[in-house]
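C-alpha cells incoming
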C-alpha cells in the first residue's frame, strides 16, 4: 500500500514586509520512483502555486535544486522518496541569499568566488590562432576534469561549519576551483601568487577539516583530496615565505 508522506517545508518571502518564516505541512501519496522534484512540482501544481523552489535539469547536472533534506544538503532531483522516512523536512541551503521558500541565489556567490580565486588561466603568451592544442598527460587531464565536474550546487557550502559562520570563506567549492588551476600547467601563477589568493583564514587555512563537504558532494568530487593538495602546497609556500 502506498505511503502517505508528510513534507514540512520552510516558507518565507523576504520581499514581503512583515512576512515571518514558518514551516508548513503538505501531504502527498507516494508513487513508484518518485523524486523530490516530482513531489515539489505536484505540490505547486495541486496545492500551493506560490511555493518557490529551483529546478532546471532534473538530472543532477544544473546544480540548481540543492536544499536541506532532513538537515542534509543534497540535490532534490536526485532524492528518491523511497529513501526518506514518512516525515521529511525541507529547508533552503544556508549561507546563500534566500530568494523565497526553498529558493536561494547560488549564482551570485559562485560568481564572487570566481573573481576572488581568479578562476581563469593566467598566461602571458601571445595568442597564436595557428597553434596546436596544448598536449597534456592523460592522468593530469583526468585530475583537472575531476575538479571541473563541479555543478555549483552549493551543497558543500551549505553543510560547511566554517562557511556558515564566516561569510568570506571560499569553502570546498572555492578550494576545488583553485586546485583545478594549480594542477593546470598552462596557468603560470607561482605558488606565492596562489598564496595571496587562498593562503588565509578565508581560504584553505579557515577549513577545520571535518570533511562534511566531501560527504555531501552529490556528484562525488574528491574534495578531501583537493583540500589536502591545496593545504599541503600552501603550508609549504607559507613556510618558505615565513608566513605560517
Ligand atoms: S572540511 Fe573544510 S571546507 Fe569541508 S566542510 Fe569542513 S570546514 Fe568546510
Ligand atoms: S564541489 Fe560538489 S557539492 Fe560543492 S558545489 Fe561543486 S558539485 Fe556541489
Ligand atoms: S534540477 Fe538540475 S541538479 Fe537538480
Amino acid at each position: 500500500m502506498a505511503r502517505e508522506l508528510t513534507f514540512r517545508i520552510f516558507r518565507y518571502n523576504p520581499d514581503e514586509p512583515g512576512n515571518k518564516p514558518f514551516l508548513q505541512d503538505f501531504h502527498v501519496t507516494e508513487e513508484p520512483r518518485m523524486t523530490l522534484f516530482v513531489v515539489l512540482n505536484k505540490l505547486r501544481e495541486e496545492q500551493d502555486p506560490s511555493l518557490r523552489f529551483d529546478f532546471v535539469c532534473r538530472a543532477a547536472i544544473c546544480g540548481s535544486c540543492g536544499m536541506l533534506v532532513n538537515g542534509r544538503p543534497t540535490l532534490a532531483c536526485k532524492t528518491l522518496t523511497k529513501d526518506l522516512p514518512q516525515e521529511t523536512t525541507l529547508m533552503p541551503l544556508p549561507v546563500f541569499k534566500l530568494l523565497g521558500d526553498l529558493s536561494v541565489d547560488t549564482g551570485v556567490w559562485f560568481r564572487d568566488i570566481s573573481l576572488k580565486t581568479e578562476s581563469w588561466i593566467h598566461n602571458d603568451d601571445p595568442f597564436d590562432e595557428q597553434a596546436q592544442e596544448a598536449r597534456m598527460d592523460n592522468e593530469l587531464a583526468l585530475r583537472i576534469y575531476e575538479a571541473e565536474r563541479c555543478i555549483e550546487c552549493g551543497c558543500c557550502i551549505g553543510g560547511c561549519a566554517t562557511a556558515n559562520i564566516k561569510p568570506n570563506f571560499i569553502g570546498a567549492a572555492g578550494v576545488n576551483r583553485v586546485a583545478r588551476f594549480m594542477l593546470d600547467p598552462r596557468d603560470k601563477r607561482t605558488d606565492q601568487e596562489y598564496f595571496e589568493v587562498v593562503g588565509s583564514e578565508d581560504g584553505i587555512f579557515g577549513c577545520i577539516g571535518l570533511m562534511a563537504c566531501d560527504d555531501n558532494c552529490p556528484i562525488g568530487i574528491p574534495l578531501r583530496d583537493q583540500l589536502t593538495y591545496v593545504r599541503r602546497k600552501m603550508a609549504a609556500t607559507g613556510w618558505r615565505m615565513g608566513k605560517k
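note: The pocket of FE2/S2 (inorganic) cluster (ligand 3) is lined by residues 55-58, 60-65, 75, 77 (CB under 6 Å).
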